[in-house]
Amino acid sequence: MMERRTFIALSGVSLLAACAAAEPLVSPEVARGIAIQDIRVEASQFAGVTGRPIEVTTEEVISDVDATLQWKLASRTTGSRPARLEVSIASFDLRSRGEAFVPGAPNSTLRAMVRVTDMETGEVIVAPTEVTGTGSGLRIPGPLGAVTAATTRPVDEDYEATIVSFAESVEERLYPDV
């Protein structure tokens, strides 16, 4: 019986840890001064979207990530320190239909290294740091989860939701409590 209690306690702790917000990239004081005025997205280490098939080129991924970041960070240009956000896309995995039926299967993810530099001095404000966006929320475990997974969103919606989640992660980590 003790093993079961231990398992349940550890499962709860793991779930809480997974739900916890990612660590901020800068302090709130530094964030208030940053004015993102230039965003550069590149994908030199990117091998293409994996998982569920989708017809999208690397150039389209770059363009979509750039446009979504521009949209999410449009209101963040009022600080006194002009800054450049550099994003290097590392991987983009869209959860496959088969995985959608497996309880605990990974969500769709977009991973990239981000770096922020002062545009006037070249000083690094945020050293290269991995940021991840996920396209799907938590699923109910067990048989009910398998049934609800059958309604997994279409691949194009999952693609878009994953990019939006990535842009939101960048914004939340770059502008904590601001």
Short recap of the structure:
The chain has 178 residues and is of the alpha/beta class.
Describe the structure.
- With 178 residues, the protein is α/β, with parallel strands linked by helices.
- It has a single domain, classed as Rossmann fold.
- It contains six helices and five strands; from the N terminus they run ααββαβαββαα.
- The chain has helices spanning 2-19, 28-33, 58-72, 97-100, 142-149, 155-174; strands at residues 34-42, 49-51, 81-94, 109-118, 124-134.
- Strands 1, 2, 3, 4 and 5 form a five-stranded mixed sheet that branches.
- Strand 4 and strand 5 form a beta hairpin.
- Helix 3 packs across helix 6.
- It is elongated.
- Residues 4-20 have low confidence and may be disordered.
Labels describing this entry:
178 residues, alpha/beta, Rossmann fold, 26% strand
Number of domains: 1
Helix % is 25-40%
Distance between the termini: 47 Å
Rg for CA atoms:
18 Å
CATH topology: Rossmann fold
How does the helix and strand content classify structurally?
alpha/beta
CATH architecture: 3-Layer(aba) Sandwich
- Written as H for each helix and E for each strand, in order along the chain, the element string is HHEEHEHEEHH
